[in-house]
């Protein structure tokens, strides 16, 4: 275990999160899969164990301070450090991403989306930073979205010109700011922090009927950023090896 990397993937019981854990595990990395329900997390880990992957399940409701603290204590006790953190868990508004209702966005929607997509990611990362600093080369991957790019939203010919959902887009833009600021703050520590745009993937969030990308491809950017070397990007917004504008 001393020389084997330890990775934590949040929201890893299905979709991109599960596939990310699988692909990391296939690289010989020990993976911790979290879910709101510990039984679901354990079941997901068991699926990977049956494939020869060293996998563990752990309970985490990312918005719960108690769960975040307990998870950090569990990792500290069992592994002593953390090498990779993939902040994969996220939510979308409980309506179509193709509705343009900026002025009508409710307080409830803002709070629901930001609590999970931004605040929880920041708080969890902060809780796990002491463990990441014990790694020789810590890696933090924040699952963002191309919808968080202000540059692309401002372009008339943008591929996302018809998608303007304030709560979701703003939460991902805020997460990108966190990536930028934390990467700069951690320069010299060996820890690299990047935002990943997985693509429009056939998931429950992305839509299984209209999304063009398969889940196996949607996990590739997160995995690549989790495994970058010393000369890899830091404080960048990436999709399948290509840099996106903030």
From TrEMBL:
Looking up Pfam families in the UniProt record yields:
adh_short (PF00106)
Q: Which UniProt keywords apply?
A: NADP, Oxidoreductase
Tell me which SUPFAM superfamilies the record gives.
NAD(P)-binding Rossmann-fold domains (SSF51735)
**Signal sequence coordinates:** none
- Family, as annotated: Belongs to the short-chain dehydrogenases/reductases (SDR) family.
Task: Indicate what this protein is called per its UniProt record.
Answer: SDR family oxidoreductase
- State the species of origin: Mucilaginibacter litoreus
Upper lineage: Bacteria, Pseudomonadati, Bacteroidota, Sphingobacteriia, Sphingobacteriales
